[in-house]
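Thread: "does anyone have the structure for this chain?"

Original post by V.I.:
We have the sequence but no experimental structure in hand. Need at least a predicted one for the grant figures.
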Amino acid sequence: MKDVEYVEAMLSTEYETEHSNEIPYPKLDEVIGGTTFEYLAGRVEGETPNGSKSREGHDYLWFKYDRKSILSHRFIAAITLEKWIPRDFDVDHINHNPSDNRPINLRIVTRRDNAGNRRTALLSELADLKAVSLALKERKPAIKPEPKPEPLPVSVSPPPDVSFDEPVPQTIYTGETKPATHGGKWHKTKVGSWHLIFD
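Reply from O.Q.:
Generated one for you, tokens below.
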């Protein structure tokens, strides 16, 4: 079986896009519609180094969408294939520069095959990159996720029925006490709560 056929067969099955302990990927259409990127150049607005580098010292790049941190090369590959890549597959950089996320520089491989530099399927063999780019330009923007509600403003003036001229009621203790573990004593109040007081 050719490498491209192998990867195509895997992509046609049901697969996990993240491990159970990871934040799930949002819908791909949402990310495409809510993210500014240059597909053929392989650049995503707001991407930053994720802290990992290649042997040659090039940075792997990622960006944040909602609560999910997404590697730029996995996003570009997902756009190309119109679905998120299986979690156990790698998106490899042909020129060994993980900062170069142009779709023409990416290929899909299994972890084992990536380590051995075997069984590769170029994105350009799996999809027509120019057609994907044109489709992106023609597509309507997806609905962005609802923004989180703004916190209500904090009122600096008291409500009209509250007066600060009245004395604050004092806490009344019952006289019952018990020692605290790290010093001080617990004092029981008339309402049944316990207050820790350091003498």
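V.I.: this helps a lot. The chain has a mean pLDDT of 81.
O.Q.: and The CA atoms of residues 80 and 129 lie 7 Å apart.
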